[in-house]
Structure formats: structure tokens, C-alpha cells
Please model this.
Amino acid sequence: MSVRDIMKNNMQTKAVALIYILWGFQSMAQPVGVDVIEVANGFFQSVGVTSAKDNSQRLFVVEQGGTIQVVKNNEVNNEPLLDIDALVLSGGERGLLGLAFHPDHETNGYFFVFYSNNEGDNELVRYTISANNPDLADPNSAYKILKITGLAGNHNGGDLHFGPDGLLYLSTGDGGLNIFEPQNNNSLLGKILRIDVDGDDFPTTEDINYAIPADNPFGNAVWIKGFRNPWRFSIDRLNGDLFIGDVGEDRWEEFNHLQSGSAGGQNYGWPCFENNDAFFTNDATCQAITNQISPIAVLEHDIPGSENCSAVGGFRYRGNDYPGLYGWYFYTDWCDGKFWAAEPSQNDSWNSYNLGTLVGSFTVTGMGEGDDGELYIMGGESLYQLVGIPAPDLIFFNGFEQTQ
Model:
């Protein structure tokens, strides 16, 4: 009897169950059949993609110049969700950098953007969807939440995600002026911030409209510290873990992890450490650090066959379409272009596997999730989906792999 006949006969339910069990064993070694397919194209300087988590199946592509494009049914809408080109200082590492939709977006219509303004400061601003069209924002609804000043124009971070606690997490770089800002607990630079965008602890300050969660470790917006430029990070939709890609300086590109349930306050080392290498050994601030958190994965600069230079943190796959990818953390490097997959081992150590070049070097700027947890990749002018071999097409019999 052929594999196809087995799938069609009365034992179909048992066969499918066997697929998933054996697939689980397979995924402990290395994800199989990983590839990308193009979903849409025609984007300009795209830096990220996300969904509204409202089951609309829409994807929203962030373009550095100041526009947010809407993708529906693999087609790009004629009009963007938002165009704030006139407000955005774009170029180099500046521009429109991040986008996140409020957990109650379906009710309040709120979404949040992080961008470099024309004065060179970074702003977190809330917008509201138009009352007449869910694919368009009301351009007059801008409401400033937070402003970060004292920047050189690079190392801006800029990624945004809401956690399962309903709070907004925002990545910031060291700002390029004072390399020690990531170790300053009173500075918002070189951190992952954690704020309540539904409150306001600064009622007399026009540009600051957020509340500080009572359990934040330093009594301000700072959640964790010690980052150089955490350009892209993610929050595991299953358990709330944070995964942070931090762009390196001298030798290492870092990919860091924070388990959910943490009390915050962890120190990831920069500029005192890059990976586990001491970077500033003679500074008193650095000499006092004894508990920096090591990355779960690194990519090294200047080794044979590698051009690593700029970490692009990814996501842990939690979709349903490709069970062989489930639970793997995918990440890449902008310059080298190779994709990697990591799985947890023990004591928060992780094993990583090189998946090869899926899109190309100097291309991928960010990754994101659809409503259903499927993973998407921004690569140059194109939006791709990360895919694996679908479960019905791969079946194991007596230890042998057969395809239909």
C-alpha cells in the first residue's frame, strides 16, 4: 500500500498522530526543509513587519522613510496605513523604526510607532485607526508617549512589542554619544524599556504620557540593561520569553534571552562585555559587574567564510502550519545573510544550526509574526514567509522518511 493510500484509508487519524509524534523527535536534531516564499514586493527601505493580532490576516510593513504599508491577501493596499514622511528624519540608522498594535486595538483602534523626528530625537507616538476605514489611520490622532534625546543618530534600537502582561516593551540603543549609558540605571539608552501606555505618571509634561509599572526594578521605564543596539527583539507568544538581537562592536553579534516571570534588572554587559569578552577592563563601572548575562547565541566577525556585522533578532516559531519548525528560534545577520535556528538545551544554554542563505546578504532587516504565529521576513523590496515541509507531506515509517 502506498503512503498516499495510507493517508486516505480508515487509519488516517492514527497516521496523522504518528506524524506529529515522530516530527517532535525529528525537531530535536535540526529543523528540516526550511525555506522562504515571497508574499509581496515593491517596498522601499522596509525595516519590519507585524500584525494587529486581530484575526484580520493583515500584515503591516514598516518603511524607514515614514510609511506603513498594508498587505491583504498577498497584495499591497493602494494607500498606506500611515504616512508621516514629513515628521521623520530618515537615513542611516534613523527613520521610522518600530510599530506595535495595542492589545485592545480592536476596541480602541490604537497603535504605536517609534521614529526619529526632524530634530534628531526619538519619539514614541500613539495613533488611532480611522473610524471609517480599518486600513487607514487618522493622521490627526497623534499622541506623544515618550521622547529620547541626546543622540548621535546611530544605535537607536526602535523595536516595539506588547507583552502578555499588557505592557509595552521598547528597545533602545546606546545613542552613539556616551558608550556607558547602557550601565546608567537612570538613562533610557541601551535598554529594553517596559511601560504602561494606558496610564500617565507625568501629567504636567506634554511629551511624556505613560505610567511606570510598580514592579519595574529601577523605579523608571527601564526593564533590563546593557545593550549596544538591540535593533530587533521578540516576545514568545506562548510563554512571554524575550529574545533580543544586539548589534555588536568589535567581534561578536549577540542573541540574548530573558525568561518570562523575571523580576527584571538583568545586565547584559555592554560596554563592559561583548559576548563574554571584557571590552572596557579599566573602567570602575565595569570592574563592579559580576553578574552579566551571557548570550544564548553569537555570530563572530572576521572569520573565514563569514561577513557577520549586524545582528537581526528573530522569533521563536509558534505557528501551526509547519510542526517541524515549532519551538525553534530563528535569527540572522544583515551582512552575512545566513539564517540560524536555535533550540534550548539545559541551564538556558542553546544549540544553534546554520540553515544557509535563504534570502541574501545585506537584505534582511527584520522578522515578524502573523495573526496565526506564522513567521515573515523583510528582505529588501520583498516580504517573505518562512516555511517548512507541511506535516501531511512528510511521514516516517519504521525510521525511514517518505514523501507523498
